[in-house]
Amino acid sequence: MLQAMALEHLYPGLNGHQILGRFDLAVANSGGSITLAGLIKGLRPAEIAGLFRERAWRERIFVRRLPWEFPGDLLAKWSADRKLAGLRAVIDDGVLDPLSGRGMSDIGRYLEQKTGRTTRLMIAAYDLDRNRGRFFRSFESELATERPAFEPALAEAVHASSHAPVMYFVGYAEVRDHNKPQDKRRFWDGALGGVNNPVLAGVIEAKANGFHDIAALSLGTAGTWAPVTPAAEAVHPELVARPASVWLGEGLKRVAGTILADPPDNATRDADVLASTGAQMRVVRFNPIIRPVRDDGVAGGRWRLPAGYEAIRPGDALGAYVALRDLDMDAVAQEEVDLIAGLGSAWLADDIPNQLLRWNPTDGAALRGHLRFSDALSAWRTLDP
Prior knowledge:
Layout: H1 2-10, H2 16-20, E1 25-28, H3 31-40, H4 45-53, H5 55-61, H6 81-91, H7 104-115, E2 120-127, E3 132-137, H8 154-161, E4 173-176, E5 184-189, H9 199-208, E6 216-219, E7 223-224, H10 248-257, H11 266-275, E8 283-286, E9 289-290, E10 293-294, E11 303-304, H12 308-312, H13 317-325, H14 334-348, E12 358-359, E13 366-368, H15 373-383
Parallel strand pairs: 1-2, 6-8, 7-9
Antiparallel strand pairs: 2-3, 2-5, 4-5, 10-11, 12-13
Helix pairs in contact: 1-4, 1-14, 3-8, 5-6, 6-8, 9-11
């Protein structure tokens, strides 16, 4: 939803085909692959955001597992097969749908017919049995290691890419090759292959395939940061972090949560190094960060809340901050989705910080990038007028 809200501001009035037609390469992972699929279908960003806001559709993706589904998978909450059925309902919604039954290379040709230019598509996943990251591509690539490539239909590629295991979806995503239906393989979320944030993979792919003048737009789905410091240094103790616990339950949660963690900010940093030339940044990151800010002129320089949380939950700004900070990635309840929508609106209004390309992990000081959405938007406008 946050990615779609950002795209709505970046490209007002344009549909998915018109937006993708401005790019040579689009790379997605996990939930971002749903956003990409919506663009491929030609939906406007507002329509994609509307899907995530629609309770009935969310509940087709996140369906409680049945007791007999993978009984040995003790921690997972959600069904695998019914997730695929929910994705197909939107991405591949019947035999008359132009995407129905098409493999990734067919999808690439379909998109070229719609846009008049070649927009290469990549969706990341993790091949469970071969223990390696996998990209489902719509094009021949210098980096492709398996030829002919394993090529699923679009809904199944999204299913593989978005299958977060252990704490979330049960078992694995089983998908088949569009060209060889007897070839079925098992996948997990592409973050397990190190591609939670796919911007670095995109920059490397572009360079490997002969593109050298690169501008990269990176869209995130929110992140968190807090200083590890005594509570007395903050206006509220909830604004600082405690040292991590490594006891069994907390340790497992931290391990499972690493698929959300980038690892922390490395992809944007490294993509910036590869694509940019000195002071001119060629990677622009759009991603709200749930973090406190430090104002040395207020409250003795202690950590405080940004202004935007009061608008999200009037009269309970701290409660909004804590709820968003602790929100899990499988947010389905309406009040959770409303919180995310409020976060997006405050971020777009510059009342919630934007993720930098680099910052000091100890004190949060900016090193490179854009601290506000409007600054990032101005930077992107210079690269894509």
